[in-house]
Structure of ORC1-type DNA replication protein:
Amino acid sequence: MGMFQRDRQVFADAEPLDDSYEPEDIRERDEELEKYKRALQPIIDNRPTSNIFLYGKTGTGKTVATKFMLSHLENDATEYDDVELSTVWVSCENLSSSYQVAVTLVNELRESKDKDRISTTGYSQQRVFDILYEELDEFGGTVVIVLDEIDNIGHSDDILYGLPRARSNGYVEDVRPVIVGISNDFQFRENLSPKVKDTLAEKEILFPPYDANQLRSILNPRAEKAFHDDVLNDDVVPLCAAFAAQDTGSARQAIRLLREAGELAQADDTETVSEEHVRNAQDELEKNQLYEGMQELTTQGHAVLCALAYHQAIGEVPVRSRDLYQRYVKICERLDADNVSERRVRDHLSDMNMLGLISVYERNEGLSAGRYHEYDLDVPLKAVLEVLLSTNRFEGPAKIIRSTADENNLLQSDISDY
């Protein structure tokens, strides 16, 4: 008998537990989907359409809802001879500027027509925008441009100014671009330049975290498809839902927890998935979520984390926000990146505290110094550096921090001990 054997006890079809799985219907988002439908309806009516921005934390259904709605929109648009509709989807996860987004958009549009891609360098931003307008005009009709994780572009928001004004400025004649922006940062709009806020004139749809009852509703049909009959103990799905609801309210987290519990049961060669498997899976995923939480930070979030890692490496922690901000500004200058205000840096620190990545200490030194906050990493420095080193833009600063930490003997403990 070989080392690997096909599982016939636990999983019937694990696909519904995969991150890429697209369900036939969207549960527990009726109100949000109704708003989405109203926002997209003008496309079918063949009239000008507002831009649409979706806000919510990771795992709250923004992306899956967008794929669901656009799939129906594309299908229904074929029923009308006077409706020309195209969609283009760009993930901004590794894009930090309007220039990079525009180049990626051009290449996505060109690829759909089997045309040569353009280089990611060698053009001015305005030239790339001009090429983008030319490509869009070739499509004609309405082109829905989905910019997923748009908050990664930070202050480099020129594309959000240029695209909505392209038709009124005469840059395009035959096309109506409609932006659908998806952001994990509720504060993203507040940090846009005033001219962009005024130009976007978008409809906003907020996706709040799921509660335990909603997560159970989402998990149940997936569990029925994914596992053999009578494999799951009755308390497994409710416990997965409760753990995820208490932590992030993320459906993605609840689904991963259920899958991990099933894999642990499979490893135990047992015919049932129990509460113990769920609790063990929760312990395992908590460690993984710390890495994922760090990886999913925006460019600005990574810069703040990098600044805190520097202070950790030189042994100056906990560190006051004003000192941390000075280091953050220097890192942004080194990366040739825009820096945000000290207040926004504190917002990023607050988000990282909620993710369990850092600790915050409130100090009160009376009339002499007043009240202030200090910050410290709540995860191993080695883990932080591993994430920063895997992010191309931060590889240089991370190497310097790692060298400094080595000199101070601060990287002796292994991540696996955490």
Notes: Residues 413-418 have pLDDT under 50 and may be disordered. Strands lie at 52-55, 85-91, 141-148, 175-183, 203-206, 319-320, 358-364, 371-377.
